Amino acid sequence: MIRLKNALAYACVNGQRFEAELCAFIRFASVSTQPHHEGDTARCGAGVKAAIPSRAVAKLNFRLVLDQDPTEIDRLFRETC
After folding, report:
1. Cβ–Cβ < 8 Å for 40, 32
2. Which candidate, 36, 41, 55, 67, has a CA 20 to 30 Å from the CA of 75?
């Protein structure tokens, strides 16, 4: 119950900021078929492209069970990705 009260208090304190950020976000002209919005959609796409990395790196740890071949598991994983 304490966590819920803390979350509600945080939401109340930051509610106006949350609303302002949401309004700014939904103003992005991300999809439009109208020619006069071409520049808006291009700028939005460039902003998203700059914010989202084109490559991700992860460190994976596999626990093998009896009779599993590590080389085979590695091969199967790489084929899947």
Report:
1. yes
2. 55
- Dist CA 23 CA 15 (whole Å): 12
CA dihedral 57, 63, 67, 69 (to 10 degrees): 20
Of 50, 44, 48, 49, nearest to 31 by C-alpha is: 44
Collapsing DSSP to helix, strand or coil, 7 comes out as helix
pTM: 0.34
First-residue to last-residue Cα distance in the chain: 42
Average pLDDT along the chain, 81 residues, taken 10 residues at a time: 78 86 70 73 67 72 88 87 67
Selection from 28, 59, 63 nearest residue 46 by Cα:
28
Quote the number of domains for the chain: 1
